[in-house]
Amino acid sequence: MIIEQKRFSNKCRFEFLEDYLRYTIRDKGSETSFNVTYDSINLHDFGSLIERNTWYRNAGLLWIGIGIIFSLIEFQQSQTFAISIWVWVGLICLAVFWFTKCEFSTLKAFEGKLYVIKDSKHDQIINELKEKRRLSLFTMYGLIDYSNNYEEEIEKFRWLLQEKSITKEHFEEVKTKIKRIHGEI
Question: Looking at the structure, do residues 72 and 40 belong to the same domain, yes or no?
């Protein structure tokens, strides 16, 4: 499954493969792409990022400054106060700066940071990442290792429960099996 997001010059591409995620992010100045294993994604610690185009802020402040100077010159010459058109242009630029933002959720993974644009596809991407991570952890750690110390094995399954890779019922079943095999019941 492939999900693509776009907001202004920001583009994110999530290619959900069986064993890993192929992640690409592009903006007006750069592009990066890398593979991410699902088990390395930290879904417990979401960050947030708001990106704005600072060119509009800088241009707005410049035009407002120029507009104030022209307004003062006009006042000196005619003794009537009029706001220069450049002040209005500057205010429009500042409004564009303020209202054209791109918001991201950020996720840490061993391979790098993932940015998910907060749009209509955001929750679908997060849910798919959660499901792929759940399946990956279960595939890697979901079998009982009977040669392992029973306390360590129970802790492994407790961790899988905490990571929402197994249900409480499954944890209790496995815990009972492990204790029975090791003669604890």
Answer: no
Of 10, 50, 22, the residue nearest 112 (C-alpha): 22
| Residue bearing tokens 């593979």 | 35
Nearest to 89, CA basis, from 110, 65, 123: 65
pLDDT digits (tens, 9 = 90+) for 75-99: 888 888 889 999 999 999 999 999 9
Do 133 and 108 fall into the same domain?
yes
In terms of domains, do 69 and 131 share one?
no
Q: Which residues of the chain have pLDDT under 70?
A: 184-185
Domain count for the chain? 3
Structure tokens at 185: 């019941």
CA atoms within 13 Å, Cβ hemisphere of 182: 18
Q: What is the pTM of this model?
A: 0.80
Which structural domain range is residue 171 located in? Answer: 142-185
